Amino acid sequence: MALENKAIISTDFLKMFDYKTICVIMAGADSNQLRRLEDLFEPILTIARGGYVRFLPEWLDFAGNVEKDTQSIDLVINTCIEIVIDRRAATDAGTEFADALSALIDARDSDGSCSSNFEIVSFFFTIIGAGV
Fold first, then answer.
1. DSSP code at position 93
2. What GO molecular function annotation could you give as one example from this UniProt entry (predicted)?
């Protein structure tokens, strides 16, 4: 069986590599949550390419991307919030993790309050933007 020589598009490869690295930092201790985060790569690329269209008036949606971008944004946010909720439950049940997601869940403000699920998801988006 001959192997095809396929060109590697370096920017796409690096984006995927960076994204997977961020996923390992966030949820690497839990293979199921890691896979769920990694599965969000394509929707996150969709958001990065044009997530702003969600805020444009319909008459400016020449390419018909508003619905696709809106679905991608909703999928990513909802999946990430589900992951945070699942991790909080596992942590409350006594499971210990050594990754950024657990550190964010365990972190407390000076008044003793913890970050909301959405704040943790926002942090994940910030890391993706900075890293990719």
1. T
2. iron ion binding
